[in-house]
Amino acid sequence: MTTHKKLDRSGALSWVDHNRIYLIFVVALLVMTAFAPKFFNVFNLTTISKTAAMNACVAIGFTIVMICGHLDLSIGTVITLAGVVGLGLKKYVGYEISVPLALCSGALVGLVNGLLVTKVKISSFIVTLGTMTILQGLIYQITGGNSIALSTPDAFSVADFLGHRLIPLVTPRVLITLVLVLLFQFLLSSTRWGRNFYMVGGNKSTAWLGGIEADRQIVVAFVLSGLLAATGGVFFAMESSAATRNMGDNSLMYVLSATIIGGTAMSGGKGGVFRSFVAILALEIIYDGIILFGLGNEVKIFLAGFILAVVVLYEAYASYRHDRVVGQRSELLAELSAAGRGNRSTDAASSRG
Hints:
Strand order of the largest sheet: 1-2
Order of helices and strands: HHHHHHHEHHHHHEHHHH
Shape: globular
Oligomer: single chain
CATH topology: ABC transporter involved in vitamin B12 uptake, BtuC
Number of helices: 16
Helix content: over 70%
CATH class: Mainly Alpha
Largest sheet: 2 strands, antiparallel
Strand content: under 5%
Protein backbone atom coordinates (compact mmCIF):
# COMPACT_ATOMS: atom_id res chain seq x y z
CA MET A 1 0.00 0.00 0.00
CA THR A 2 2.82 2.37 0.93
CA THR A 3 4.57 1.63 -2.35
CA HIS A 4 1.44 2.48 -4.33
CA LYS A 5 1.10 5.76 -2.44
CA LYS A 6 4.70 6.62 -3.27
CA LEU A 7 4.08 5.81 -6.93
CA ASP A 8 0.92 7.96 -6.95
CA ARG A 9 2.76 10.84 -5.32
CA SER A 10 5.62 10.47 -7.79
CA GLY A 11 3.14 10.53 -10.66
CA ALA A 12 1.49 13.69 -9.31
CA LEU A 13 4.84 15.43 -8.94
CA SER A 14 5.79 14.36 -12.44
CA TRP A 15 2.54 15.84 -13.80
CA VAL A 16 3.14 19.12 -11.95
CA ASP A 17 6.70 19.27 -13.27
CA HIS A 18 5.58 18.55 -16.84
CA ASN A 19 2.91 21.26 -16.73
CA ARG A 20 4.66 23.71 -14.45
CA ILE A 21 4.78 26.59 -16.93
CA TYR A 22 1.04 26.47 -17.47
CA LEU A 23 0.49 26.44 -13.71
CA ILE A 24 2.87 29.39 -13.28
CA PHE A 25 1.05 31.28 -16.03
CA VAL A 26 -2.38 30.69 -14.49
CA VAL A 27 -1.23 31.58 -10.96
CA ALA A 28 0.51 34.76 -12.18
CA LEU A 29 -2.59 35.81 -14.14
CA LEU A 30 -4.96 35.15 -11.22
CA VAL A 31 -2.75 36.89 -8.65
CA MET A 32 -2.23 39.99 -10.79
CA THR A 33 -5.92 40.10 -11.71
CA ALA A 34 -6.89 39.95 -8.04
CA PHE A 35 -4.33 42.33 -6.57
CA ALA A 36 -2.58 44.49 -9.22
CA PRO A 37 -4.42 47.78 -9.80
CA LYS A 38 -5.82 48.27 -13.32
CA PHE A 39 -4.28 45.01 -14.53
CA PHE A 40 -7.18 43.18 -16.13
CA ASN A 41 -8.32 45.49 -18.92
CA VAL A 42 -8.01 45.29 -22.69
CA PHE A 43 -5.51 48.13 -22.97
CA ASN A 44 -3.09 46.69 -20.40
CA LEU A 45 -3.36 43.12 -21.65
CA THR A 46 -2.77 44.30 -25.23
CA THR A 47 0.30 46.16 -24.01
CA ILE A 48 1.56 42.94 -22.41
CA SER A 49 1.05 40.97 -25.63
CA LYS A 50 2.82 43.65 -27.69
CA THR A 51 5.73 43.84 -25.23
CA ALA A 52 6.10 40.05 -25.17
CA ALA A 53 5.90 39.67 -28.96
CA MET A 54 9.52 40.52 -29.75
CA ASN A 55 11.05 38.22 -27.13
CA ALA A 56 8.56 35.45 -27.93
CA CYS A 57 9.70 35.53 -31.55
CA VAL A 58 13.35 35.43 -30.46
CA ALA A 59 12.63 32.56 -28.04
CA ILE A 60 11.56 30.29 -30.92
CA GLY A 61 15.03 30.04 -32.42
CA PHE A 62 16.76 30.16 -29.05
CA THR A 63 14.68 27.19 -27.89
CA ILE A 64 15.63 25.16 -30.97
CA VAL A 65 19.32 25.86 -30.32
CA MET A 66 18.94 24.76 -26.69
CA ILE A 67 17.09 21.61 -27.76
CA CYS A 68 20.23 20.81 -29.76
CA GLY A 69 22.27 21.21 -26.58
CA HIS A 70 23.81 24.61 -27.34
CA LEU A 71 23.45 28.29 -26.39
CA ASP A 72 23.15 31.42 -28.53
CA LEU A 73 24.27 34.43 -26.51
CA SER A 74 24.26 36.69 -29.57
CA ILE A 75 20.47 37.02 -29.86
CA GLY A 76 20.34 40.39 -28.10
CA THR A 77 22.85 42.02 -30.43
CA VAL A 78 21.20 40.40 -33.47
CA ILE A 79 17.93 42.08 -32.41
CA THR A 80 19.71 45.44 -32.37
CA LEU A 81 21.59 44.78 -35.61
CA ALA A 82 18.40 43.92 -37.47
CA GLY A 83 16.65 47.03 -36.17
CA VAL A 84 19.57 49.24 -37.13
CA VAL A 85 19.90 47.70 -40.60
CA GLY A 86 16.16 47.71 -41.26
CA LEU A 87 15.65 51.34 -40.30
CA GLY A 88 19.06 52.63 -41.36
CA LEU A 89 18.70 51.43 -44.96
CA LYS A 90 15.01 52.26 -45.25
CA LYS A 91 15.57 55.84 -46.37
CA TYR A 92 17.81 54.61 -49.21
CA VAL A 93 16.04 51.49 -50.49
CA GLY A 94 12.70 51.36 -48.67
CA TYR A 95 11.35 48.68 -46.38
CA GLU A 96 10.87 46.33 -49.36
CA ILE A 97 14.64 45.78 -49.45
CA SER A 98 15.87 46.91 -46.05
CA VAL A 99 13.72 44.42 -44.12
CA PRO A 100 14.91 41.36 -46.14
CA LEU A 101 18.49 42.60 -45.72
CA ALA A 102 17.94 42.90 -41.96
CA LEU A 103 16.59 39.34 -41.82
CA CYS A 104 19.51 38.09 -43.92
CA SER A 105 21.98 39.77 -41.56
CA GLY A 106 20.55 37.79 -38.66
CA ALA A 107 20.60 34.54 -40.63
CA LEU A 108 24.23 35.23 -41.65
CA VAL A 109 25.26 35.71 -38.01
CA GLY A 110 23.55 32.41 -37.18
CA LEU A 111 25.32 30.68 -40.07
CA VAL A 112 28.72 31.89 -38.86
CA ASN A 113 27.91 30.76 -35.31
CA GLY A 114 26.77 27.33 -36.50
CA LEU A 115 29.80 26.73 -38.72
CA LEU A 116 32.24 27.73 -35.97
CA VAL A 117 30.51 25.39 -33.52
CA THR A 118 30.28 22.40 -35.86
CA LYS A 119 33.34 22.70 -38.10
CA VAL A 120 35.88 24.43 -35.88
CA LYS A 121 34.55 22.63 -32.78
CA ILE A 122 34.45 25.68 -30.53
CA SER A 123 32.01 25.79 -27.62
CA SER A 124 28.79 27.58 -28.56
CA PHE A 125 29.13 29.65 -25.38
CA ILE A 126 32.51 30.99 -26.50
CA VAL A 127 31.50 31.42 -30.15
CA THR A 128 28.31 33.36 -29.50
CA LEU A 129 29.91 35.41 -26.72
CA GLY A 130 32.56 36.48 -29.23
CA THR A 131 29.91 37.16 -31.87
CA MET A 132 27.98 39.28 -29.39
CA THR A 133 31.06 41.39 -28.66
CA ILE A 134 31.92 41.85 -32.34
CA LEU A 135 28.37 42.86 -33.21
CA GLN A 136 28.30 45.39 -30.39
CA GLY A 137 31.32 47.07 -31.92
CA LEU A 138 29.83 46.89 -35.41
CA ILE A 139 26.55 48.43 -34.26
CA TYR A 140 28.42 51.27 -32.57
CA GLN A 141 30.34 51.95 -35.79
CA ILE A 142 27.13 51.99 -37.82
CA THR A 143 25.16 54.24 -35.47
CA GLY A 144 27.99 56.28 -33.99
CA GLY A 145 26.41 55.58 -30.62
CA ASN A 146 23.19 57.34 -31.64
CA SER A 147 19.64 56.13 -32.13
CA ILE A 148 18.05 55.83 -35.56
CA ALA A 149 14.58 57.35 -35.81
CA LEU A 150 12.26 57.69 -38.79
CA SER A 151 9.76 60.51 -39.09
CA THR A 152 8.44 60.08 -42.63
CA PRO A 153 4.71 59.58 -43.32
CA ASP A 154 5.20 56.09 -44.78
CA ALA A 155 7.23 54.99 -41.74
CA PHE A 156 4.48 56.23 -39.44
CA SER A 157 1.83 54.44 -41.50
CA VAL A 158 3.72 51.14 -41.18
CA ALA A 159 4.14 51.71 -37.44
CA ASP A 160 0.43 52.45 -37.07
CA PHE A 161 -0.46 49.29 -39.00
CA LEU A 162 1.81 47.04 -36.91
CA GLY A 163 0.46 48.51 -33.68
CA HIS A 164 -3.21 48.61 -34.70
CA ARG A 165 -5.43 46.28 -32.65
CA LEU A 166 -7.13 43.76 -34.94
CA ILE A 167 -9.04 42.06 -32.14
CA PRO A 168 -8.63 42.40 -28.37
CA LEU A 169 -4.99 41.68 -27.38
CA VAL A 170 -3.87 41.01 -30.99
CA THR A 171 -2.04 43.43 -33.32
CA PRO A 172 -0.45 42.46 -36.66
CA ARG A 173 2.96 42.11 -34.99
CA VAL A 174 1.49 39.89 -32.27
CA LEU A 175 -0.33 37.87 -34.94
CA ILE A 176 2.93 37.30 -36.84
CA THR A 177 4.53 36.05 -33.62
CA LEU A 178 1.63 33.71 -32.86
CA VAL A 179 1.76 32.23 -36.37
CA LEU A 180 5.51 31.63 -36.07
CA VAL A 181 5.15 30.03 -32.62
CA LEU A 182 2.41 27.65 -33.77
CA LEU A 183 4.23 26.85 -37.02
CA PHE A 184 7.49 25.89 -35.33
CA GLN A 185 5.72 24.05 -32.54
CA PHE A 186 4.02 21.94 -35.20
CA LEU A 187 7.27 21.38 -37.11
CA LEU A 188 9.13 20.32 -33.96
CA SER A 189 6.47 17.98 -32.64
CA SER A 190 4.92 16.55 -35.81
CA THR A 191 7.61 16.31 -38.46
CA ARG A 192 10.72 14.20 -38.81
CA TRP A 193 12.72 17.35 -39.56
CA GLY A 194 11.72 18.83 -36.21
CA ARG A 195 12.18 15.65 -34.19
CA ASN A 196 15.73 15.39 -35.52
CA PHE A 197 16.66 18.38 -33.36
CA TYR A 198 15.63 16.41 -30.27
CA MET A 199 17.64 13.41 -31.43
CA VAL A 200 20.75 15.54 -31.91
CA GLY A 201 20.36 17.19 -28.51
CA GLY A 202 19.48 13.97 -26.72
CA ASN A 203 22.26 11.77 -28.07
CA LYS A 204 24.46 12.63 -31.04
CA SER A 205 25.70 9.05 -31.36
CA THR A 206 22.15 7.73 -31.60
CA ALA A 207 21.32 10.48 -34.09
CA TRP A 208 24.31 9.45 -36.21
CA LEU A 209 23.24 5.81 -36.12
CA GLY A 210 19.80 6.97 -37.24
CA GLY A 211 21.27 8.63 -40.31
CA ILE A 212 20.87 12.20 -39.04
CA GLU A 213 23.56 14.70 -39.98
CA ALA A 214 23.99 16.31 -36.58
CA ASP A 215 26.24 19.13 -37.77
CA ARG A 216 23.75 20.20 -40.40
CA GLN A 217 20.90 20.22 -37.87
CA ILE A 218 22.96 22.35 -35.48
CA VAL A 219 23.85 24.83 -38.24
CA VAL A 220 20.17 25.07 -39.21
CA ALA A 221 19.26 25.69 -35.56
CA PHE A 222 21.70 28.60 -35.31
CA VAL A 223 20.54 30.07 -38.63
CA LEU A 224 16.94 29.91 -37.39
CA SER A 225 17.97 31.54 -34.12
CA GLY A 226 19.64 34.42 -35.94
CA LEU A 227 16.78 34.77 -38.44
CA LEU A 228 14.04 34.81 -35.79
CA ALA A 229 15.98 37.18 -33.53
CA ALA A 230 16.29 39.51 -36.52
CA THR A 231 12.57 39.12 -37.22
CA GLY A 232 11.65 40.15 -33.69
CA GLY A 233 14.09 43.07 -33.76
CA VAL A 234 13.19 44.55 -37.13
CA PHE A 235 9.42 44.41 -36.58
CA PHE A 236 9.80 45.94 -33.11
CA ALA A 237 11.90 48.76 -34.61
CA MET A 238 9.39 49.28 -37.43
CA GLU A 239 6.49 49.58 -34.98
CA SER A 240 8.32 52.13 -32.85
CA SER A 241 9.96 53.84 -35.87
CA ALA A 242 13.20 53.86 -33.90
CA ALA A 243 16.22 51.68 -33.22
CA THR A 244 18.65 52.28 -30.38
CA ARG A 245 22.08 50.71 -30.06
CA ASN A 246 21.01 48.82 -26.92
CA MET A 247 17.42 47.87 -27.80
CA GLY A 248 18.15 44.14 -27.47
CA ASP A 249 20.39 44.22 -24.41
CA ASN A 250 17.77 42.95 -21.96
CA SER A 251 16.43 40.21 -24.20
CA LEU A 252 19.16 37.60 -23.61
CA MET A 253 18.45 37.02 -19.91
CA TYR A 254 14.71 37.40 -20.50
CA VAL A 255 14.64 34.75 -23.23
CA LEU A 256 17.11 32.47 -21.45
CA SER A 257 15.03 32.59 -18.26
CA ALA A 258 11.77 31.93 -20.10
CA THR A 259 13.21 29.05 -22.11
CA ILE A 260 14.54 27.27 -19.02
CA ILE A 261 11.41 28.00 -16.98
CA GLY A 262 9.38 26.65 -19.90
CA GLY A 263 11.08 23.28 -19.53
CA THR A 264 13.81 23.27 -22.16
CA ALA A 265 16.81 21.37 -20.80
CA MET A 266 20.20 23.07 -21.05
CA SER A 267 21.70 19.65 -21.76
CA GLY A 268 19.50 19.33 -24.85
CA GLY A 269 16.91 16.89 -26.13
CA LYS A 270 13.95 18.35 -24.26
CA GLY A 271 11.76 21.44 -24.64
CA GLY A 272 9.11 23.12 -26.72
CA VAL A 273 8.55 26.40 -28.52
CA PHE A 274 5.02 26.86 -27.21
CA ARG A 275 6.18 26.33 -23.63
CA SER A 276 8.80 29.06 -24.08
CA PHE A 277 6.08 31.33 -25.47
CA VAL A 278 3.85 30.74 -22.43
CA ALA A 279 6.84 31.39 -20.15
CA ILE A 280 7.48 34.72 -21.91
CA LEU A 281 3.85 35.70 -21.28
CA ALA A 282 4.03 34.60 -17.63
CA LEU A 283 7.16 36.66 -17.00
CA GLU A 284 5.67 39.66 -18.76
CA ILE A 285 2.54 39.41 -16.60
CA ILE A 286 4.70 39.34 -13.47
CA TYR A 287 6.84 42.28 -14.65
CA ASP A 288 3.75 44.28 -15.59
CA GLY A 289 2.30 43.64 -12.14
CA ILE A 290 5.51 44.88 -10.53
CA ILE A 291 5.16 48.16 -12.43
CA LEU A 292 1.49 48.50 -11.51
CA PHE A 293 2.36 47.96 -7.84
CA GLY A 294 4.76 50.90 -8.14
CA LEU A 295 7.89 48.85 -7.47
CA GLY A 296 11.21 49.74 -9.07
CA ASN A 297 13.12 48.08 -11.89
CA GLU A 298 15.55 46.62 -9.38
CA VAL A 299 12.69 44.47 -7.99
CA LYS A 300 11.97 43.23 -11.51
CA ILE A 301 15.63 42.29 -12.03
CA PHE A 302 15.83 40.58 -8.62
CA LEU A 303 12.63 38.60 -9.23
CA ALA A 304 13.76 37.49 -12.70
CA GLY A 305 17.07 36.27 -11.27
CA PHE A 306 15.34 34.57 -8.33
CA ILE A 307 12.89 32.69 -10.57
CA LEU A 308 15.69 31.60 -12.87
CA ALA A 309 17.84 30.45 -9.93
CA VAL A 310 15.00 28.40 -8.44
CA VAL A 311 14.27 26.69 -11.75
CA VAL A 312 17.95 25.95 -12.47
CA LEU A 313 18.40 24.45 -8.99
CA TYR A 314 15.28 22.37 -9.47
CA GLU A 315 16.51 21.17 -12.86
CA ALA A 316 19.83 20.16 -11.29
CA TYR A 317 17.99 18.24 -8.57
CA ALA A 318 15.67 16.58 -11.11
CA SER A 319 18.67 15.53 -13.20
CA TYR A 320 20.39 14.08 -10.11
CA ARG A 321 17.24 12.23 -9.12
CA HIS A 322 16.82 10.88 -12.65
CA ASP A 323 20.41 9.62 -12.75
CA ARG A 324 19.87 7.76 -9.47
CA VAL A 325 16.80 5.84 -10.64
CA VAL A 326 17.59 5.46 -14.35
CA GLY A 327 17.02 1.88 -15.43
CA GLN A 328 14.83 1.04 -12.43
CA ARG A 329 11.36 -0.41 -13.04
CA SER A 330 8.80 0.79 -10.52
CA GLU A 331 6.55 -2.25 -10.92
CA LEU A 332 9.50 -4.59 -10.34
CA LEU A 333 10.53 -2.64 -7.24
CA ALA A 334 6.96 -2.97 -5.92
CA GLU A 335 7.03 -6.73 -6.51
CA LEU A 336 10.40 -7.08 -4.79
CA SER A 337 9.18 -5.02 -1.85
CA ALA A 338 6.08 -7.17 -1.51
CA ALA A 339 8.16 -10.35 -1.77
CA GLY A 340 10.48 -9.05 0.93
CA ARG A 341 7.57 -8.41 3.28
CA GLY A 342 6.22 -11.91 2.55
CA ASN A 343 9.58 -13.52 3.34
CA ARG A 344 9.86 -11.58 6.61
CA SER A 345 6.34 -12.73 7.62
CA THR A 346 7.23 -16.36 6.84
CA ASP A 347 10.45 -16.15 8.83
CA ALA A 348 8.61 -14.63 11.79
CA ALA A 349 5.99 -17.41 11.71
CA SER A 350 8.68 -20.04 11.55
CA SER A 351 10.49 -18.58 14.52
CA ARG A 352 7.30 -18.53 16.58
CA GLY A 353 6.64 -22.15 15.62
